[in-house]
Amino acid sequence: MKIAMEDAHTTLLKIDEKTNIAFYAVFDGHGESEKFKSGEYEEALKEGFMKADAEIIQTTERVFDPSGCAAVCVMILPDGTVYCANAGDSRAVLSTAGGVVDLSHDHKPTNAEEYQRINAGGGFVEYGRVNGNLALSRALGDFEFKGNPKLEAKDQVVTAYPEVIVHNEDSSKPSEFIVLACDGIWDCMTNGQVVEFVRRHIALGLKLESICESLMMSCLATENELTGIGCDNMSVVLIGILHGKTVEQWYDHIKADYIAAHGVPEPLGSDQRLEHAEYVEQIEEVSSSISASGEATISTTSTTTAMSVDTESDPESASDAKKADLPATQNIAADSEAEAANSAPQKLSQSGESDSNSSNPDSKTENQ
């Protein structure tokens, strides 16, 4: 079991009706902008983080709340340009035909720039932590580290001011997908290993929702022998960038590219002797059971279709639900994705959250 689920994610296929800009974010727990409307996206993202932080502290119940939240988000423009804003140690990684592009950098107290700001603000770094306590140096919340009245918000010991990285689409190295995840994933795997994991599983025939669950299962910490409490919250968002392909063409392209470079992959998992079909069935059964006990939302627009899966589960409750079917309307999403694939760039998004809490909320499917 786990004490609490602290992660969340957001998927917006269209920020508003006037644009074809998509927005995805992962928030790891421990309004419309004039700059956005004028195309100043980098400044709009920075402004958004700072305004969100300021509004949080204005709520009465948060004044003495010691909790905080790392946050990473990406905004994808119609021309394929990606803006990534990050505060903390959640991370975004882009796959470009198997290459790896870091869209964010972790904000740790030991980083030179972070260390300098912490000390200038009256704090200190001990045991690699802010004031010997906090393991990251930028975050939403964590207001006990933001109380110096002489400093602006972005100069506090801990700040919500994000780092923004812009990636321009390169036709010679087209974008394939983006992975957004909290530190529970990156503590287990490098950026390159995660990209390899996703591409390999696509080559094995798995879909993104199954890959999300498989990735989290691979990184989920075992329970503490003394307390019986696990140590991880995990959130993962996978965003497939279609570039005018249908969803199936997108899967087939990555699969063919991977096999051409590496050969046909062997099944992964604890039992290396599993046949390919058995492995795929095993992972998809787990994905189906977790999805059936969590919350699924299917959203369809004129240009993109995405399925977001929120999950709170433990292995025991998941095994009890192994034979539960996914909501039937998810088949509609697959059809809609294929129909919508002629507009570019399209995004296919799958996301999941996991902890080891045995809660089992009612399933919900929504076709917009």
Automatic annotation (TrEMBL):
CDD domains per the UniProt record, alphabetical: PP2Cc
Keyword flag Hydrolase: yes
Protein keywords: Hydrolase, Manganese, Metal-binding, Protein phosphatase
Cross-referenced InterPro entries: PP2C (IPR015655), PP2C_BS (IPR000222), PPM-type-like_dom_sf (IPR036457), PPM-type_phosphatase-like_dom (IPR001932)
Pfam families in UniProt: PP2C
Cofactor dependency: Mn(2+); Mg(2+)
Keyword Metal-binding included in the entry's annotation: yes
Record region (Disordered): 285-368
Coiled coil feature spans: none
Catalyzed chemical reaction(s): O-phospho-L-threonyl-[protein] + H2O = L-threonyl-[protein] + phosphate
This enzyme's EC code(s): 3.1.3.16
Gene Ontology MF terms in the entry: metal ion binding; protein serine/threonine phosphatase activity
Residue intervals of the PPM-type phosphatase domain: 1-241
Biased composition (Low complexity): 285-310, 333-362
PANTHER family referenced in this protein's UniProt entry, alphabetically: AT28366P-RELATED, PROTEIN PHOSPHATASE 2C
Family statement: Belongs to the PP2C family.
Name of the protein: protein-serine/threonine phosphatase
